[in-house]
Specification:
The chain is globular, with a radius of gyration of 13 Å. The longest helix is centred in the middle third of the chain and has 11 residues, at about 30-40. It contains 3 helices and 5 strands; from the N terminus they run βαβαββαβ. The protein is an alpha+beta fold and about 100 residues long.
Length: about 100
C-alpha cells in the first residue's frame, strides 16, 4: 500500500483524516499514484493536476524520501521506501505572497 499525505485543504475536500492508503498496481510512479488517488477520490480531479494537460498545479509540490520530485518526469519510478509503504509521498501546498 502506498501512503499519501495530502495538504489540509485537499484532505477536507476528499473528506479524509490523516494519510491516504492506495493500492497501486504495476510500477509505482508519480503518475500511477495520482491516477489511483483520483480514481479513489474523484473530487480531487483537477485539484492536483490540470484536467487536460495533467501537469502539476502551481503551488503544489511532491516530496518522496525528503526529496522534492515536483519537476521529475511523472513516469519516473518512486523510491523503494515509498513503493513499499515505509515512507509516504507528500503532496504539499506551497505558500506565496509578499
Amino acid at each position: 500500500m502506498i501512503r499519501v499525505i495530502l495538504p489540509p485543504h485537499l484532505r477536507t475536500l476528499a473528506q479524509v483524516d490523516g494519510e491516504v492508503l492506495l493500492d497501486v498496481q504495476g510500477r509505482v510512479t508519480l503518475r500511477s499514484v495520482l491516477d489511483a488517488l483520483e480514481t479513489r477520490y474523484p473530487m480531487l480531479r483537477g485539484t492536483i493536476r490540470d484536467h487536460v494537460t495533467h501537469q502539476r498545479r502551481p503551488f503544489l509540490r511532491f516530496f518522496a524520501c525528503e526529496e522534492d520530485i515536483s519537476h521529475e518526469s511523472p513516469d519516473t519510478q518512486l523510491p523503494e521506501a515509498v513503493a513499499s509503504g515505509a515512507e509516504p509521498l507528500f503532496i504539499v501546498g506551497a505558500i506565496a505572497g509578499g
